[in-house]
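Could you join me in thinking about how sequence relates to backbone shape in a protein? Would you write everything just below, so we can both look at the same thing?
***
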Amino acid sequence: MLGTVPEAAREPDAREEHGPEPPAETGRPAILRAEAWRDMLRYLRPQRRLILVGGGLSLLGGFSGLIQPVIAKSVVENLESRTPVMSALIALTALVLVSAVVGAIGTFILMRVSESVVLSTRREVIRRVLWLRVSETDKIPPGDLMSRATADTTLMRSAVTTAIVETVNGSVMLVAILVLMGFMDWVLLLTTLAVVLLGGVLVATGLPQLENAARRAQEGVAELSTALERALGTFRTIKASGAEEAEAEIAERGARHAWQHSLKVARLDSLVGAFITVTIQVAFLAVLGVGGARVASDAMSLGSLIAFLLYLFYLVPPLGALVTAMIRFNVVAAAMSRVGELLRLRTEPYSPAPVRPVPGRDAAAAGRDAPVPASVTFEDVVFRYPGEGPVVHHGISFEVPAAGMTAFVGPSGAGKSTVFSLIERFYEPQGGTVRLDGRDIRDLDLGELRGAIGYVEQDAPVLAGTIRDNLCIGMPYVEEGELRRVVGQARLDGLVDRLPHGLDTEVGHRGTKLSGGERQRVAVARALLRRPRLLLLDEVTSQLDARNENALREVITGITAQTTVVVVAHRLSTVSMADRIVVMDGGRIRAVGTHEELLSEDALYRELAATQMLLPVSEPAATTVRANDILGEGP
C-alpha cells in the first residue's frame, strides 16, 4: 500500500463520474462497530508480523510478572517457617528485570508499527486528495482536508497499541489472572468478580458519548484549520481591510469548539478512571474483609491472602488497558470516520500526464515528432455545477478549428471560463459531447488529454518555490535552453536577469514576491514550456500593462501556426486580431465572427467594444452600456 495510488484512484472507466454520489457519513455511534474494525485492520494488515512480535513480547513480559505473586507467597511462607529466602529474592529480582526489558522491547516495536500506520494512512490520504475530482473538492474546504490529513491521521497511532494489542493482551492477562486467583481461593474470586462487574456496568454507560465528543473535537480543529487557511490565503486583503479581529474570532471559534469537546472527552475519561479506581478499592476492601475472615477460620493461609491481594492489584493494568482501549478506540473511530469520508470521495483515473506532449494523429501518421494543433468541438453541451446552482450552458455548440486563435467574449457569468473547465475535464457535462480532434474526450486517456493542453488560469496561480520550480511543474527534466526560450517568449527575461539567483530565486508563498503581471507571465511561460497542441488562456492579459500586453499578443500570434490558441478575455484589445470570436451571453452562443464582422452584426459586441473605445471613428458608440456585466469574469 505504501507509495501506491489508492485502488479507488485507478478507475477503469472514466464515465463512472456520471454514477450516483456516495452517501454521506452520518456520524452514527460506532463503539467497536464492524466498519471501524474493518477499516482499522486494513491499515494494520501489512504490519501484522511486527504486531505479533511486539504484542507477543509485551504479553511475555506481562506473564513473567504474574509469577511474582507466587514467589512472594513462597517468601512469606519461608519467613514463617524460618527457612532461607535468598534464592527466592534473587529469582524475584530477575523476573522483574526480564519483565521490564522484554516489555520495553515489545513496546518499542508496537510504537514503530503505530508510526508506520500513521505514515501509511497519510500517504493514502495525500494521494487521494491530489487525485480528487475537482467537483469533489467543492464539498470540503481545503483547511478541513488538511486537518483530516494531519490531525485525524495522527490519532491512528492509537490504533495499534490500544485498540488492538492492549485489547488482546489485556484480555489474555485478565483471564490468566482470574484463573490464578481461582486457584488461590474461589470464594474471593467470586467476591472480586461481583464488584468488578458492577463497576464495569457503570463504566460502560459513559462510553457511547465518547466518539461523538471526539468527533466534534476533531471538527473543531478542522474549523480552525479552515479559518487559518482562508486568512493566510488573503493575508494582505485582511490587513488592508483591518479585519484581523474578525478573522481571529472566526478562527478562535473553531479552537473553542475543539476545546469544549476535548474537555468533554477529558471529563468522561477522568470519570472512567475514577470508576476503575473506586472499583479496585472496593474490591480490595471486600477481599480484605472476606479473606481476613477466611484466614481467621483457617480456610486459607496468610500467604495465599497476600498473593491474592497482589493478583487483585495486578488486575488494574489489564482492566485499565481494556477500558482505555475502548475509550481510545472511540476516539480513533471518530477520526477514521472523517478520514473515511475523504477516502470515499470520487477520484479521477490514475493517468499521469506525459512529460512531453503527445503528437496529434496527423503528426504521428506523418512520422513527425512535433505535435500539431488540435481542434475542439462542443455539441449541444448542457452543464450546471454540482448542487442547486443554475444551468451554466444551455446546449451550446461551436467548433474551434485546428491552428489559429479563437476568442470567447461576453458579459460576466456567460459561461466562458467554464468552457475551459469542460475541455480539461475538471467537470463533466450533464448533456452533449466535447470532442478533441473529433474524439469524445471521455474516451481519451486523461493524462494524454491534459498533456496536449497548456492552461493558464484566470488568477494565474504561482506556487511557493523558485521560478524554475513553477515553470517545470509536471516536467522535471527540462533543458536550460528550453527554459530560456519560454522565458523570452513570455517577456520574463528582463525580470530573471534582475533577480539575484535568476531562475532559482524564491517567489514566496503563492508568488507574493512577484507582481500580478509577473505571475501571469510565469503562468504563460509554464504553459508554453509544454509545447501544447491546444493553449487555453483565461484572462491572460488582465494584469499586464499595455507594453507587455502587446508583446504577449505578438507571442500568441507567433505560435498560432503550431498551436490552437483559445482565449477568454474582457479586454477586446487582446482578441481583436483573433481568427474568430465567439460571443456568449447567458450560457448560450450569441454570435461567431471576426472583430469587424461582429461590430457590424452583433449589438452586444458593439456595446462591449464601445466601452473600451474599440469602435472605428465613424462608428457611433452604443448609448446603453451594461457596466455591471463587464466587471470581471464569473463561471
Q: What stands out?
A: The first helix runs from residue 34 to 44. DSSP finds 23 helices and ten strands in the chain.
